[in-house]
Write a structure and sequence with these properties.
Elements (H helix, E strand, L loop, with lengths): L1 E4 L2 E4 L2 H18 L4 H11 L4 H25 L5 H24 L2 H19 L4
Helix pairs in contact: 1-2, 1-3, 2-3
Length: 129
Amino acid sequence: MKVDFWGQEFQVNMWVGCIGGFLIAIMSSMFGFGGGPFMVPLMTLALRLPMYIVVGSSLLAIFFNTAMGTARHMQFGNFDLILFLAMFPAAIIGGYVGPMIAKKLSPQVVKRVACAGLVILGTKLLGLY
């Protein structure tokens, strides 16, 4: 499928995107992490989209996944309102400031920071850190 974004055209395999997004949504909802660490590589490597499209698209896709996952976890009683209220203002501020910082950096630096974050996350999840 061809995607047109502000005058630039990209060829995207929608089957890979849909199946990958579905699997990422299941994993992130089961294990309680945001899908970004997997959604970003899916869109940059498998779908070959540029980073400036990937960031916003990933956040929008993860928003819906997170909203549904949160609703289901609330139904199961796995929701801490105090923790949510403590983290919410920081998340809003970070979501506002982050794109401004990323816009000033080169895409290569953004990718390297994301890779470093993924390595740290992976070592934490594996119990190596």
